[in-house]
């Protein structure tokens, strides 16, 4: 499933995502983005305060799901209500830093959701308990802890076993795959960040991963 937000999208990004995940859901103002691009979402979820008149006219009323509470972001409202083999999210990382951080926060607080967020250059997801990634040698693999977490891995240029990761301490940016990579973590809280060219490997890895 493709989930679109109201953030910046590269030209053609939505169409490319729909080739991989053809069912389209919009998070609140992401519906405006979808309609401008010529797509009518199957569902629009959020507090709906950013949906404009053109979008309301284009999307059947039955497809709107109004969630009034203000304790969560529209992205999190969607993440916790969508049931799908995987979610491909775009329009959530930028241009506002607070919105991007809120998306990463939601990912790691709901690690059982198989969701990959696309940025202009990267594909990021919350690490499951165990995952195997069919990466080619030289692929960048960054690990960013959103909570204290330890893990182990094979196939990385720099081992992670025995390291205590934490957001205000050791992080794992700019590691590198030497071929296929397998990782396991002792607790939720790690973000895995790969180049967009590795998106297919990320999706396949999440489909077969051992979840929390």
Structure description:
With 212 residues, the protein is α/β, with parallel strands linked by helices. The protein has 6 helices and 12 strands. Strands 1, 2, 3, 4, 5, 6, 7, 8, 9, 10, 11 and 12 form a 12-stranded mixed sheet that branches. The mean pLDDT is 96.
| Oligomer kind | single chain
Q: How do the SSEs run, as a string of H and E?
A: EHEHEHEHEHEEEEEEEH
The rounded Rg comes to 17 Å
Unreliable stretches covering 5 or more consecutive residues:
none
Shape: elongated
Helix amount = 10-25%
The total count of strands amounts to 12
Give me a quick take on this structure:
The chain is an alpha/beta fold and 212 residues long.
Tags for this model:
alpha/beta
Please specify the SSE layout and strand pairing.
Blueprint: E1 2-4, H1 13-20, E2 24-27, H2 30-36, E3 43-46, H3 53-58, E4 64-66, H4 74-79, E5 87-90, H5 97-109, E6 115-118, E7 122-126, E8 130-133, E9 140-145, E10 151-156, E11 172-185, E12 190-195, H6 199-208
Parallel strand pairs: 1-2, 1-5, 2-3, 3-4, 5-6
Antiparallel strand pairs: 6-7, 7-12, 8-11, 9-11, 9-12, 10-11
